Amino acid sequence: MSKKHFSWGKVYLALVFIILYAPIVYLVVFSFSAGKTMEKYHGFSFQHYADLFADSRMITIVINTMIVALLASLIATIVGTMGALLIKGSHRKWRNALLSLNNVLMVSPDVIIGASFLIFFTMLGVRLGFASVLLSHIAFCIPIVVLMVLPKLNELSPTLVDAAYDLGASRWQSLSRVVLPAIAPGIFAGYFMALTYSLDDFAVTFFVTGNGFSTLSVEIYSRARQGINLEINALSTLMFIVSLLLVIGYYFISKHAGRRNRIVTVKEGDAQ
Amino acid sequence: MRQKAFFAVPYALWIILFVVAPLVLIFYQSFFNIDGQFTLGNYANYLTSSVYLKMTVDSVWYAFLITLVTLVISYPTAYVLNRLPNKQFWLLLVILPTWINLLLKTYAFIGLFSQAGTINQFLRFVGLGSHQLLFTDASFMFVAAYIEIPFMVLPIFNSLAEINPSLINASKDLGANDWQTFTKVIWPLSLPGVKAGIQAVFIPSLSLFMITRLIGGNRVITLGTAIEEHFLTTQNWGMGSTIGVILILAMFIVMAVTGDRRKKKGGVRR
Amino acid sequence: MKKLLSAFIGILILCLLLAGGDYALNRHNNGSSRKTVTIYNWGDYIDPALITKFEHQTGYHVDYETFDSNESMLTKIRQGGTNYDLVIPSEYTVQRMRREHLIAPLDHRKLPNMRYLDKQFLNRSFDPGNHYSVPYFWGTLGIIYNDQKIKGADVQHWRQLWNPRLKNNLMLIDSARDVFAIALITQGKSVNTTNYGQLKSAQGKLKQLTPNVKAIIADEMKMYMERGEAAVGVTYSGDAREMMSVNHHLHYVVPSEGSNIWFDNMVIPKSARNKAAAYKFINFMLEPKNAAQNARYVGYATPNWKAKQLLPKKVTSNRAFYPPKQTMKHLQTYRDLPLHVLGEYNDLFLEFKMFAK
Question: Residue A106's closest CA among A82, A140, A80?
Fold first, then answer.
């Protein structure tokens, strides 16, 4: 009986995946169209890929986008995890207030965030460009990290931490040996969601960028008036394939490393 | 104690510089009219205008519906994912589509949903005839839910993964059927994840704007759209900020509601 | 912990590799530290080959930055923080930038190629004497229709949009000024009216249009019309050209009773750092050969008469994009209105959209 239940679940999951990937398949298919728009398929061609590789400005923009996204998400994840620890550790009265403040940037429309950051940066005299974009991305990625990490912290049984202390662990040891490993899935989730936010942001980046620095979203949105070229589809296809390969690669590495780790832990345990 | 303070610094700094400071700025601006004079008129205008009140009700209603649809799709997804071998890998595959630019994906949806599009071609092929899919509430909500699904799946998945399987076995040993096990054991234990998911979906949905135009054809207008317009087209930052303040207030209310529930539960448990 | 740490280090390494790639790429591009000229324009609104040509000819390095709307560009320039040497706003924004003292007057002696500009596109009300701006492209607001869904004779004039036969088959552009222009012209009023009564009555007229309105959208209208989602759309000539090149059943009409004529213009902000290069660039773009090449790439109508002669006859004889003198006479430009009037336009438009179901 449970077997039958399982297969229905798989059918459902397959359906969800079909929906999730349908628009992407659509984009990928048209990246190979010989035509100029996504209106009608005009036969197979690599033309848009050739255009893309000849467009060094676009390649620079892609690299910029990826550096900002990877780095901003990383820093946001660190700060956000600290924030989640802080919120968790604070008095109940403060907890909700802090959490609400945390969510302000999630509810504020991008124009408001962008405009106020722009005012803020020009007031401080920060040169608009890579630094200001990076700072803003860190800023609006932090709340989602907190939201992803906090439930894991709430599930963490306090007795576990107490036990660590009882066994003579220092604050840092209990954090690095007990708390962080336990909330790691939340941290990873936070990182990936931050990456999503950062890659997708247009409005905030638009306002705080300058001096020749641009990201992919700004470029794509500003092309909308002239009609988005299929070169962008080709680019998205490549980015999609690369991230797919990274995900698969990560999976194999972690599977491998996971096995080794387990052995190491056992050995450490033996030593103690 | 010092160590704790050290942890607090970056986050506190972030709150002060990037949350409180813009918040003060928005609040301050909401008291100025288009000519830069101090006024309470923006709030009066908001509270007496049928346009804004309807917009507020619409925004909350649609955000609620979107959250509901997302939850209904995401919970079973997270549940099934959790039972797969290599579940982390499959989870990453759920997130992967979000890294493709949203505007492009929306254009792809236009291509799929339009009358000459793939879905209608399929419907005609099956003999169901073509249908108007775009510019309907259904398609708008579908695309909005599409965007939000990973934000809901992730926290639910994480809290489901945390559930100790022995609890489920124990429940079954005690004679509970699948449904009882789910309602009495799994669902309550996954509630923190569900709450986090609701916060991550409902709050941003209040200020959705781009797909309201692209997919909804401006048939649904949310507070986010109005703010966009006031900040850019009308250059009436005062009114835009006022609506921003309202949105933030709405968010505080949502937070208070979810927070209260948690407190009550804790009380019962004790 | 180990997993977290290795992920952390892995991401850092990836960033370093990317930064290295970026450095290598740009060193390859820039060569030495040449002087830079920063251009602020709509995305994909210039032939990239012309930028390269300009760089080769003059030795400057061009930073090309993009914006998606006049309004967001204006917010950015007003706030400062970056210095753009050349910006390409639409005409009503030129007027506002001038009023807010954001742009510098032009020295026409440095722009000898202005002689190639057609007189009828100069000395317009938004910038008398072209003291501040040089037209880049121009176009109109008009009606695009699909001949498989409706006869051309049924959509030659604005008032025909109210025809009940178009029920749920009309797409409007999401812009208060443009939608009000339709009603105002139909009622014989100026598209620049500041009279609240006239606006209110125009809104009343628009409300009668709601049964026909299928959607109120922006750039994505191209995609919708190309796929035949609606019979009729109100759009700009530039977009129309794009749509027609994809779907041959589409046709574009500029109603002869009048419409809007718009201009995108080159201006030099006061905060520009490299004005000399900006002048060189404007002059370079006015060079007939370059202007023609750009018009072929972008597909909009050029104000450069010499360049127009270099374009294929098929393009320049198309009356939809280079309308006859008779229609040209009835075209009005938008003037930048006082902010509170603009607020009225937008509030009334918002109300129209809110209740247009």
Answer: A140
Distance between CA atoms of C303 and C120, rounded to whole angstroms? Answer: 9
> Which residues in chain B are closer than 8 Å to C227, comparing Cβ atoms?
110-111, 114-117
**A257-268 tens-digit pLDDT:** 655 544 444 333
The closest alpha carbon to B139, from B253, B28, B62, belongs to B62
DSSP codes joined into one string, C51-70: HHHHHHHH-PEEEEEEES-H
- The class of domain C139-261+322-354 in CATH terms is alpha beta
DSSP category for residue A178: I
Judge: A66–C65 Cβ closer than 8 Å, yes or no: no
Assigned domain for A254 exists: no
* Range(s) of the domain holding residue A108: 56-228
**Residues C67, C42 contacting (CB under 8 angstroms):** yes
CATH number at residue A165: 1.10.3720.10
Q: How far is C220 from chain B (nearest CA, A)?
A: 7
C229 lies within 8 A of chain B by CB: yes
Fold of B38-269: MetI-like fold (1.10.3720)
Residues of B in contact with C356 (CB under 8 A): 219
Q: What is the pLDDT of residues B50-95, one digit of tens each?
A: 889 999 998 999 999 999 999 999 999 999 999 888 888 899 899 8
Question: In this predicted structure, which of A82-91, A108-117, B243-252, B254-263 has the lowest mean pLDDT?
Answer: B254-263
Q: Is B228 on the interface with C (CB under 8 A)?
A: no
Asked whether the whole model's pTM tops 0.90, one would answer no
Contacts of A235 in chain C (CB under 8 A): none
Residue A79 lies in a domain: yes
CA distance C250 to chain B (A): 15
Residues of chain C within CATH 3.40.190.10 domain(s) are 33-138+263-316, 139-261+322-354
ipTM: 0.86
